[in-house]
């Protein structure tokens, strides 16, 4: 049994896996055992069948011998009809244990004699008409003809028990099953050894892959195996591992290079390469994080802006390298003066900023500001020269003085300039009202963000009329800002601010959306009505803004020419080809174009020649002087003539009395607008004007029809 134990030891390494998975080895063993069992079962069945046939033939041969002897002995009794002799001859069969019963039948079927073993039951009665032999589940019956001188004189029937046959077969079956069990046990071990030997290399490959997965070690290799399919698999695995190792090495190298590049990019993106302080980009991100943290924790924070006084003179005198050295020395002094969790950044040039985190206060800022002034007062040794540079420092607190990060930065910057105005080398904390002249612009810029969100911006509409029949053909949309504290703010005061901070783009999109929404309703009353809106030069130069305006118009699907864009001459000072392309784009999507404030620019006639305008708008300054002299009238006549020559409509704005309207009508001006007709009114009142004018026009057409 040593080889069995050796086989068991050989599979110990795979035992754990066998309990978890139906492995190939397990499947091979089970397949082999099943095939062996099937073969043994077939062999056992064939053997037993052969035994049954052989024993049956032997039993039948014995019965035929007994029948032949008994038939010769009982022939005389049959001839003479002697039942006693017949019974005596049959009784001699009792010495054969397997015989249960026997009978002798005469040719007419009568029973001459019968023998039955005492205490035994038969499976079936003997028949006189039986021939040959008959097999049942418990007995074998033989019908033997009794002859005399080759003539059949009777029939001898003998029934033999099959019990001895069954006992013999039972022993054979028991022995066969025992042999099968032993054979299966041996087969299992043989198959186990065979499967283990066959699958052990595969299992080793499996273990190797687990090690590779666990330790990420691509240098591992499989042992060289015999030249078969498994060996080829091992060679392929080793080649694959070699490729993976090379690929992993390249990836690791690339990853290191990428990390190094990311580190360098991070240094470039977030650090100043002169002072090694954080730069403006990092300052913005960090400030947003600090403000959000203060907001969520109901805390406070602050920003200090620092501008060096006299740095430009030193930089120009001693050179840029000396200037960089000075900036590094300043950065070191600033860094040494703040707490560990405060952040010093260089914003650019000679500007620095400090972010104060965690419960900042005005007294803390004042202390820090004075300390910074102190550390900046000693001289700096730059290029073997002692130089002196001071600082102007401005500070602002959140949320005590600023409402968000934008105002926090803006107010700190304003406080810094206030410190400069105080004579430099000073610290100034922002206080509302302390810098009113500078504050108003910053306040308007800040409040303009709220104005868009809180719908403080509204549109008013001034009617546009035809000169000859005073027919209402459109409106000009005019933007108004109703400030909750400052009241009505003129567009001239906030449009420039909106352009400077980029808010003109969302404002322009809002205006066009509102106008398109309103015009959709008005065109149900007057289908050919149009509305003019002003287009900023900032919008015209911004390609995404242009695309957005075109998309809004296409979304509302208004009739072509429903929206007219008015541009001032000042907005066309860009390259002619660029502006022409932009204007052609607006025309293609369905806008009309008008040049506003015509005559106040530098090259009006050149613009009319280069750009595809549909209408000229005469500036109100010419219209207002119509009552005072003939010069303005002559200029307007010239504009009207130019419009006729170029097939452009001409509209005069700022018409305030009947005389101006009459003069304009007499010289052929196409359209007019002004206080003489109507002031700019809200949308609801403009709707009432439109409805009233439309009804009046309908009545006029009816009267004209009746008159004819």
UniProtKB/TrEMBL annotation:
Cross-referenced InterPro entries: Biofilm_reg_signaling (IPR052155), CHASE8 (IPR033417), EAL_dom (IPR001633), EAL_sf (IPR035919), GGDEF_dom (IPR000160), HAMP_dom (IPR003660), Nucleotide_cyclase (IPR029787), Rev_trsase/Diguanyl_cyclase (IPR043128)
Any single GO BP term: signal transduction
Sequence ranges assigned to domain EAL in this UniProt record: 441-694
CDD domains: EAL, GGDEF, HAMP
Coiled-coil stretches noted in the UniProt entry, renumbered to this chain: none
GGDEF domain boundaries: 299-432
UniProt entry keywords in alphabetical sequence: Membrane, Transmembrane, Transmembrane helix
GO molecular function: catalytic activity
Domain annotation HAMP: ranges: 196-249
Gene Ontology CC terms, in alphabetical order: membrane
UniProt cross-references to SMART domains, sorted A to Z: EAL (SM00052), GGDEF (SM00267), HAMP (SM00304)
Transmembrane segments: 28-50, 173-192
PANTHER family: BIOFILM ARCHITECTURE MAINTENANCE PROTEIN MBAA, DIGUANYLATE CYCLASE DGCP
NCBIfam families: GGDEF
Stated name of the protein: GGDEF domain-containing protein
Organism listed in the record: Proteobacteria bacterium 228
Upper lineage: Bacteria, Pseudomonadati, Pseudomonadota
């Amino acid at each position: 049994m040593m080889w069995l134990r050796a086989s068991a030891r050989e599979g110990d390494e795979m035992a754990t896996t066998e309990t978890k998975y139906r492995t190939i080895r397990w499947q091979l063993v089970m397949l082999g055992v099943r095939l062996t069992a099937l073969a043994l079962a077939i062999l056992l069945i064939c053997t037993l069948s052969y035994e049954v046939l052989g024993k049956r033939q032997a039993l039948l041969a014995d019965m035929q011998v007994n029948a032949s002897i008994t038939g010769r002995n009982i022939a005389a009794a049959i001839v003479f009809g002697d039942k006693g002799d017949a019974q005596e001859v049959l009784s001699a069969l009792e010495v054969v244990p397997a015989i249960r019963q026997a009978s002798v039948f005469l040719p007419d079927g009568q029973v001459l004699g019968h023998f039955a073993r005492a205490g035994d039951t038969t499976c079936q009665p003997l028949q006189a008409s039986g021939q040959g032999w008959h097999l049942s589940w418990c007995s074998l019956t033989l019908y033997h003809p009794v002859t005399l001188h080759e003539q059949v004189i009777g029939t001898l029937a003998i029934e033999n028990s099959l019990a001895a046959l069954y006992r013999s077969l039972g022993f054979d079956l028991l022995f066969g099953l025992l042999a099968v069990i032993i054979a299966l046990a041996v087969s299992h071990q043989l198959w186990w050894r065979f499967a283990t030997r066959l699958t052990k290399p595969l299992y080793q490959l499996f273990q190797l892959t687990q090690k590779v997965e666990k330790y990420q070690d691509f240098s591992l290799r499989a042992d060289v195996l015999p030249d078969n399919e498994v060996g080829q698999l091992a060679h392929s695995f080793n080649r694959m591992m070699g490729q993976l190792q090379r690929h992993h090495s390249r990836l690791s190298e690339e990853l290191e290079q990428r990390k190094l590049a990311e580190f360098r990019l991070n240094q470039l993106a977030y650090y100043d390469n002169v002072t090694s302080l954080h730069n403006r980009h990092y300052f913005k991100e960090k400030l947003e994080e600090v403000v959000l943290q203060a907001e969520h924790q109901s805390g406070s924070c602050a920003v200090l802006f620092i501008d060096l006084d006299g740095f430009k003179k030193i930089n120009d005198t001693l050179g840029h390298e000396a200037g960089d050295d000075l900036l590094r020395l300043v950065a070191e002094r600033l860094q040494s003066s703040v707490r560990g969790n405060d952040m010093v950044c260089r914003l650019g040039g000679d500007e620095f900023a400090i972010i104060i985190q965690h419960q900042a206060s005005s007294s803390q800022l004042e202390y820090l500001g004075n300390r910074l002034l102190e550390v900046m007062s000693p001289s700096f040794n730059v290029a073997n020269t002692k130089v002196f540079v001071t600082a102007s420092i401005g500070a602002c607190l959140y949320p005590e003085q600023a409402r968000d990060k934008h105002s926090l930065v803006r107010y700190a910057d304003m406080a810094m300039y206030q410190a400069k105005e105080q004579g430099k080398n000073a610290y100034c904390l922002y206080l509302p009202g302390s810098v009113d002249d500078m504050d108003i612009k910053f306040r308007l810029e800040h409040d303009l963000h709220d104005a868009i969100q809180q719908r403080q911006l509204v549109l008013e509409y001034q009617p546009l009329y035809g000169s000859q029949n005073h027919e209402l053909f459109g409106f000009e949309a005019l933007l108004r800002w109703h400030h909750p504290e400052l009241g009505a703010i003129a567009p001239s005061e906030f449009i420039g601010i909106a352009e400077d901070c980029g808010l003109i783009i969302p404002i322009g999109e809002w205006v066009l959306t509102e106008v398109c929404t309103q015009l959709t309703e008005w065109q149900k009353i007057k289908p050919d009505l149009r509305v003019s809106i002003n287009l900023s030069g900032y919008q015209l130069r911004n390609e995404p803004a242009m695309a957005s305006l075109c998309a809004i118009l296409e979304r509302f699907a208004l009739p072509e020419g429903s929206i007219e864009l008015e541009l001032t001459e000042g907005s066309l000072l860009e390259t002619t080809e660029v502006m022409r392309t932009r204007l052609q784009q607006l025309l293609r999507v369905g806008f009309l174009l008008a040049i506003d404030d015509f005559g106040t620019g530098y090259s009006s006639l050149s613009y009319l020649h280069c750009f595809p305008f549909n209408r000229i708008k005469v500036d109100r300054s010419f219209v207002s002087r119509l009552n005072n002299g003939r010069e303005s009238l002559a200029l307007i006549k010239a504009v009207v003539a130019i419009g006729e020559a170029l097939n452009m409509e001409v509209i005069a704005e700022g018409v305030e009395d009947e005389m101006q309207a009459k003069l304009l009508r007499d010289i052929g001006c196409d359209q007019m607008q002004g206080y003489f007709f109507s002031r700019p009114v809200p949308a609801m009142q403009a709707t009432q004007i439109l409805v009233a004018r439309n009804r009046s026009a309908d009545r006029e057409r009816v009267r004209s029809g009746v008159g004819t």
